[in-house]
Amino acid sequence: MVASDRMLPIARRSAWRDDCLEVVCGIANAGGGRLILNADVDSRGSVKRRTNRIMKSIPPAVDQALGLVCAVELVLDGGRFCLEVVIPPASEPLSYRGVFYFYQDGANHVLDDEALDRLLQRDLEPDIKWELLPVVQASMDDLNLGLVTRFTGAARDTDLTTDLDETAAIEEALRHEGLMTGVGTPTNAGILLLHDQPQRFIPGATVRIGFFGARGITPIFEDEVRGSLIEQLHGTVELLFEKYLPRMNPFAGSPATGPHGALPPRDAIHEAILNALAHKNYGSGTPVQVSVFSDRLCIDNVGRPPRTWDAGTLLGRHTSRPNNPSLVAALRSLGIIDGWGNGIGAIRMHCMEAGVPEPLFSLRDDETMVCFPTDNDSLLAASMAPSPHLAPAPVPRTELAAVQVAARAAAMQHETSLTFSDERVLALIDIDGRLTAPRIARNLGVSESTVRRSFRRLRELGLITRIGSDKSGFWQVN
């Protein structure tokens, strides 16, 4: 079973010898870890020639013998300089010269037949998540210091090469958030958030944008947005609003208008791109894809919520079930993601407030797509014209939301009925229970008194409950 960060084995040897490859094999089979070797340095801390030669020879030796990519660094350990060999976990059980080893409890063990069977079957056991796997080709020195200091709160003038206490505190903060492993290397999540070029280590860690015009099969023009995840988010939104969305209607006087009306609001597009980046399956090697047509904008990413969910589940109240929980938690720590499981509600609310059609959501076997129509006519076009790279766009959702169906049934039991305003107020509360009567009234184009009457009727029917005070509480749909 793959070890957790706090269980990662550490082996110590005085020098690099042939039997060290056995130890490396054992540590890799145990889930990855570190091998610490003595280092020769002079009084100024410079590496002597012999140690320098060893540092260069270890990675190719490990690669040739075991097919592993390891990193070797000069570190301080217990007040003295040492060589640290960072060993990644083996994707499948490894053997060295036909023998399987497993490092445990400070010793390297040769596996007997029974232990080997358990090791060979460990894929049946819960494995470490992709986002927490170490990227051994990188170190903290490769990360963007500005992003690191923003995340950890460290001083911007920190010299990570000399201020060892500050460095240790930063590493501990990154480990706590799942952005660095216990062996001092960034995780996949750390590379996505804190590296300037994550695509160097994670194939497809970019956003691809294409403009297809009316019903094009190939893009008329396209861009690929690179950088850290945060830079991809902001760079994609900027490109869409500065370069792509104005092309949806070249004759419009403002980039805020589409062929027949207003374009999707910036906040809604921002939230949709953020959702795609945060919940993507990065092991797929496929970029997030944004396809812009004359009448709609579609965002597709490989990765979806649990298999038991459908589009209706997304639109209703649901728990937060992120594919990349450590990545999402780190984005929340940065204040980029607000709350749990309310991203879809925020997208819908931004569109409602802007007076534009709600987006269409589609869940496939391994993909999630959101499509923003720019007018009511494009709802029909979205169901007819296929998107390049993707399956056909989703058919508009015409069935009633589950909360409205339940509300009508409850009203019938009380031998009464709901008004159209009642149902719309209930639908808005289901999206965000913190909405106030004035804000709902503005969204629906009705008076506050009408909204408050709906509150009372819905409450009397047992459909909603007020949690907390009138000033700081919220409505809960029962």
Automatic annotation (TrEMBL):
Source species: Adlercreutzia muris
Coiled-coil features, chain-numbered ranges: none
Lineage, top ranks: Bacteria, Bacillati, Actinomycetota, Coriobacteriia, Eggerthellales
Stretches that traverse the bilayer: none
Name of one Pfam family that matches: HTH_24
Lineage top rank: taxon: Bacteria
Gene3D superfamilies, alphabetized: 3.30.565.60, Winged helix-like DNA-binding domain superfamily/Winged helix DNA-binding domain (1.10.10.10)
GO function terms (MF aspect): sequence-specific DNA binding
Protein name, per record: MarR family transcriptional regulator
CDD domains documented for this protein: HTH_ARSR
InterPro entries in the cross-refs: ArsR-like_HTH (IPR011991), AsnC-type_HTH_dom (IPR000485), RecG_C_sf (IPR038475), WH-like_DNA-bd_sf (IPR036388), WH_DNA-bd_sf (IPR036390)
